[in-house]
Amino acid sequence: MARPYQPSLLRLLHGVTVVLVAGAWLTGFLVYNRFDGRWGRWPLALSGDWIDIHGTVAVVLWPLALVFAFYAFTVGRSRLRQPANLLALLALLLAVGSGKLMQEDWLEDGELGHGVYAVHLLAWLAVAGAVVNHLGSVLARGGKSLAASMASLEVRPRDQPRDWYGQVWRHFRR
């Protein structure tokens, strides 16, 4: 059986998104732990301006999530037939969208009752669940070889960065 191959643009967008989502999730947890903690706090004594760090990660993640969604609904449309892929993308878009609607000073001022903040918390729980579901789905469909194909550095001749523009825009000429 042939080894699975994932397009290089997908792997790049996916890989950077994974790193940023992990960073956003971790910094978001630290912000929640410091300013909210309604459902428990962990005894962490990490100093730093975690709201600003979380916001900085989000500033980079927001446009990347939009580019990733654009890719997913064009070149990667067939991959969205897998519910785990679609759920992960939708959870990500809900999380960054709701985060974009929040005000930075709400948490510092103890204003925890904003509806968009509740949506943001639920969205990040959905991201965590969607990621676990996504990983399980990948392993169930293709095992370790499919999972490893997302981390592969192999690039085929017609899948170079110079080919990305044509790969994406080809879907609009159909």
What can you see in these coordinates?
This protein has 174 residues and is an all-alpha fold. The protein has a single domain, classed as Fumarate Reductase Cytochrome B subunit, CATH 1.20.950. It has six helices and no strands.
Any idea of the CATH class?
Mainly Alpha
Overall morphology: elongated
User: Could you name the ranges where pLDDT drops below 50 across 5 or more consecutive residues?
Assistant: none
Which value, in Å, is the CA radius of gyration?
18 Å
Question: What is the terminal separation in angstroms?
Answer: 31 Å
**Number of domains as seen in the coordinates:** 1
**Binned strand content:** under 5%
Q: Short description, anyone?
A:
The chain has 174 residues and is an all-alpha fold. The protein has six helices and no strands. The chain is 66% helix and 0% strand.
